[in-house]
Design brief:
By secondary structure, this protein is of the alpha/beta class. The chain has one domain: Alpha-Beta Barrel (TIM Barrel), CATH 3.20.20. It has helices spanning 3-16, 28-33, 52-64, 79-82, 91-109, 141-158, 171-183, 213-216, 235-246, 275-287, 301-306, 308-317; strands spanning 21-22, 69-71, 115-121, 162-168, 188-192, 194-196, 202-204, 227-231, 253-256, 261-263, 266-268, 290-293. It has an eight-stranded parallel β-sheet with strand order 1-12-9-8-5-4-3-2. Strands 6-7 form a two-stranded antiparallel ribbon. A hairpin with a 2-residue loop joins strand 10 and strand 11. The longest helix is centred in the N-terminal third of the chain and has 19 residues, at 91-109.
Length: 319
């Protein structure tokens, strides 16, 4: 049994005991918040190249405030995103550097129990100045499958402990991401993104169609995921989405919301939720069965630090 397998098995045992596990907060947006320019085509993907020390410091800061899982800065660095930005020939260099920054942060922390999660999204080129995929630039299915498979395999080969499927909201694109993640043989955690419809329903995050969240969750019938949850979604819709998810999934639930909004290529840090308010929401999610909590875009180490009390409370209540 490899070290990564042992590490994951220990975390899995904690979840089975009813403990709460802390995920990190935003990585790409944290690079931006600390002064790194985002790429107009590939957002935070190429930023790894010239900022590996800062990226390592961000991971270290999350570990220092109690994160049990840190996320590789690879959300926007599939070849689908890097090639239009002029970095296609540096795909391996960028993504290896991103994984290694996380691995170095773990080693430096002295906490060998921290897991490194490879981020795999179905992000494709966006309309300029928006957060919406440009259908004119969506690649064919075979190209999607190849790109997602390439990045997932790199995560496995470079030493990630699990794959985080992030911001799953498009039924057609996300199937290719699920297949790519499953093919690695690593544990797969699925993160779905949602929004509140005008009539109050919980819908897919997709802005151009009112697709019920339940429709997205049908994918769980076809793939074996170790955990599933709601991420990159507003805190005030996350709880209702978790209730829906619990109705079809019996494994550990995850929740890591965003705060602010995205206008390509920059995150807009407007009305970011205070750490104390995030804790209030997370306490509610804990009561709904959530076990893995953290933050996504716009949220920083200060937010993860505020969640430590949930971790302690869950541990004490499960012993």
């Amino acid at each position: 049994m490899g070290v990564g397998t042992i590490r994951y098995t220990r975390l899995e045992a904690r979840l089975k005991r009813g403990e709460t596990v802390l995920l990190d907060g935003g990585t790409g947006t944290e690079l931006q918040r600390r002064g790194v320019a985002m790429d107009p085509e590939a957002w935070c993907g190429p930023a790894t190249l010239e900022n590996t020390s800062l990226l390592e410091a961000i991971h270290s800061d999350y570990i220092a405030v109690g994160a049990d899982i840190i996320t590789v800065n690879s959300y926007a660095s599939s070849r689908l995103m890097l090639t239009p930005a002029g970095y296609g020939d540096r795909f391996e260099e960028i993504n290896r550097a991103a994984v290694h920054a996380a691995l170095r942060a773990r080693q430096a922390s002295g906490r060998d129990d921290v897991l490194v999660a490879g981020s795999l999204s179905h992000m494709c080129p966006l309309y300029e100045g928006t957060s919406q995929a440009d259908p004119r630039r969506l690649p064919p299915a075979a190209e999607l499958a190849e790109a997602f498979g390439e990045l997932a395999a790199l995560h496995r080969d470079e030493g990630c402990d699990l794959i985080l499927l992030e911001m799953m909201y498009d039924p057609e694109r996300m199937v290719h991401a699920f297949k790519a993640a499953e093919a690695t043989g690593l544990p797969v955690w699925a993160g779905f993104s949602v929004r509140r419809g005008g009539d109050g329903r919980v819908l897919s995050f997709a802005p151009d169609v009112d697709l019920p969240f339940e429709t997205l969750l049908a994918v769980l019938d076809d793939f074996d995921v170790a955990a599933a949850g709601v991420m990159h979604s507003a805190p005030n819709v996350t709880g209702d989405a978790l209730d829906i998810l619990r109705g079809v999934f019996s494994g550990p639930l995850t929740a890591y919301p965003d705060s602010g909004y995205f206008t390509m290529p920059e995150w807009q840090f407007e009305e970011v939720i205070p750490p104390a308010e995030l804790l209030r929401f997370a306490t509610d999610w804990l009561g709904r069965g959530m076990q893995v909590v953290g933050g996504c875009c716009g949220l920083s180490p200060e937010h993860i630090a505020a969640l430590q009390s949930l971790k302690a409370r869950a541990v004490s209540s499960s012993t």
